[in-house]
Structure formats: C-alpha cells, structure tokens
Amino acid sequence: MLSIALAGKPNAGKSTFYKAATMADVDVGNYPFTTIDPNRGVSHVRTDCPCLEREERCGDEHCNDGKRYVPVELLDVAGLVPGAHEGRGLGNQFLDALTNADVILNVVDASGGTNEEGEPVEIGSYDPTRDVEFIEEEMDLWIAGIVERNWETVVRQSRSPDFDIDDALTEMLTGVGATEYDVAKVLRSLEYPTDPQQWDREAKEALAREIRAETKPIVVVANKADIAPEGNVDALRDAADGPVVPCTAEGELALRQAAKRGVVEYDPGDADFTITGDLNDAQEKGLERIRGVMAEFGGTGVQQATNEAVYDLLDHITAFPVQNEAKWTDGQENMLPDAFLLPRGSTPKDLAYAVHSDIGDGYLHAVDARANRRVGEDHELDEGDVIKIVSTAK
After folding, report:
1. How many Å apart are CA 146 and CA 162, to the nearest integer?
2. Which domains occur in the chain, in start order?
C-alpha cells in the first residue's frame, strides 16, 4: 500500500487533515505537538470505477455509485520546528518516521495565523511561504546528516578494487527509502568526485537534496485557505516548486461528520453537497460557508491533495484484476472486487505480482477485459484497465 505522510510545523492542521481523511479518532488541538506518537491510518484516493460502463454498479464497499476509493496509508507525525534535523522539538522522531513514505503532504497554515514555532498569532501576520522552504530544508539536512554520519564507511569501501559507488550509496540510502534506481538516477544528474575522500560538504548536501526530491516528492497543502488573506494562496503557488492545493481540513471534517449523521449527502472529493436533514441556524450557516469555499476551490482540498500526490506527482494508475473477463467478476461473482495502484508504465505481469507473488511467478498471459483480447507481457496499463490474469497459480 502506498504511504503518504503529513508534514508541517505544529498547529498547521495536520491532525485535522488526518482525522478528516481517515475518520480516525485522534487528538486535535491548537497547541504545538498535539501529535507525539505517529498516527497511522487508511485514507483513499478517488477515481472513476469501471462499473460506470456496465448496466449495474459493482456494489464494492469502496465504490459509491461509480466513485471508487482505493486505500492508501496516511501517516500523521509530530510537527517540525526550525532545527528539527538537529533534534529540536520532536524533529528526529518526526523525520525518522518519514523513512518509508512515498510522498509528502506539506500542510501549511495559509492564513498566516501561526508563527514558525506553530504558536498562534494574528491572522495574516506571518508569511506562510516561509514554511514551504523550511520543510524542504529540514528534510534535506536530515538526509545530509545521515550521509555525513555514514560517509566514512563509503570511504573505507572505496579502497576495495571492486568498489562501486552506486552500490555503496544505495546501501547507505535505503534507510531513507531510496532504491538502486533512485541512487543511479540522482548520480547521473550530479557532478561529483570519483574518489569519495574528495567529496566536500557541498557535494554531500547536493546528493541529499536530490535524493529527497526523488524519494520524497512534496505536495503543498494550503490549509485554512477559507480564512487566508487574499493573495496568500497565490503566494504559496509562486513559492513552491511543485503542486499547491488550497484546502480547508476543518470544512472536510465537518462535512464527513455531517454525512455520518445523515444530515448531508456528500462523498469525499465532491465539489458540493446536499443538505438532507434538520439543522439549526448556526449549523446551516457553517455549512453554507464551507459551500462557498468549495465553490471557489472545487472542493475542500483534502481528497484533491491526496489524489494530486498519488495520481499526478507519483504518476500512478488504478488497475482492476478480474477472473471472468466477460462479467468483470472474481470467483465468487463479485464485480471488480479489487483495485491496485501501480506506477505508470506497469505491465500485466506487474499487476499479477501486485495481486500475489505466486500469481506473478506463475504468470502466463493477460486479457484486456474491455476489448476481450489478449495483451502482451510488455503492454503498458492505463488508468481504469480491467485485466484478467491467467496464471498457473490458483
């Protein structure tokens, strides 16, 4: 399962985002370090279910009338403060928890209502663009510290006649989630001495920055956009190297709770909602304020941020394995029972391994269920493909 981590300074709204995205019971408060121990939960990305092409909906628990929700892990950890890479606040605990994250959602207080330490200040008195660079810098310096602490090992290895710097750095950087491919790609983009003894601090920090960018890409979540002064969200867009998603995590949480009580009809990611139950004047006024924000930004931003991270930044697709290519069902006649997130460029055999290693090992061929034709082993899957895997494994 893909892992998404929530980063940001204290009191930016990470725990509210987490609760809204998972409906898990977590502590939410407007004081620094509300979160101490990491929270791990299940959220979802949203896509169109292929059942929309059939006469009947699939009925899967993760499908609501063709809106398909595919599980991802969401990690909420302690907030970062300046100097976190040196252990300030709960920095080391936070950064170490990021090791296995595939992508980062940097939750920024777009209202400028909290200072760099996460302490409440007058709305608009703090420049939120500072939190974009600050998070990246802390993560870069955290990895640079790991590189520095382990560099002597690389130097010793370099004295061996069969030394390979790619292998040595891969061994070191697997601890922050880097793969052999990641290291090779980064080294191709850098100029560096062939002798590890000649690497200076600048070269090591350049390596750390590129490894972080490759293994921990970032989506900036402009939280509290509903109360942000005019121009703050645009300023964040200008400051960030990657995508920025305006968000009101409190608005999403209110809608999810209202939907749970049956007073509104709302599915995560919708651009609007319908009031279906009795509300008092204050509740109705609050929901209408959320509706206005959704109209401006196309939703509350919580689902949009998660989708942006997985489908756009990580460039993943959703594939649906089935046993019966005519009915799109499994062996128990369940239509489209499973959905898998795979990197773009994945093949039917990759999907087979995602289902189970035995299915992958016994892979024979695959059938595109839409076209009802066999596809080759090197066929690249597209978003929403429905695929029958034929394997010797049962």
Report:
1. 24
2. 3-137+217-310 (3.40.50.300), 138-214 (1.10.8.470), 316-391 (3.10.20.30)
Q: What pLDDT score was predicted for residue 93?
A: 56
pLDDT score of 161? 92
Alpha-carbon span 271 to 254, nearest angstrom: 15
Is the torsion defined by CA of 372, 376, 377, 381 positive or negative?
negative
Task: Give me the residue label for tokens 């940097």.
Answer: 106
Angle (CA) 236-310-111 rounded to 5° is 25
Segment-wise mean pLDDT, segments of 10 residues, the chain, 394 residues: 91 94 66 56 97 93 95 85 51 64 95 93 96 86 90 95 94 90 94 93 94 94 96 96 96 96 96 95 93 95 98 98 96 95 98 97 97 95 98 90
Report the pLDDT value the prediction gives residue 177, as an integer from 0 to 100: 86
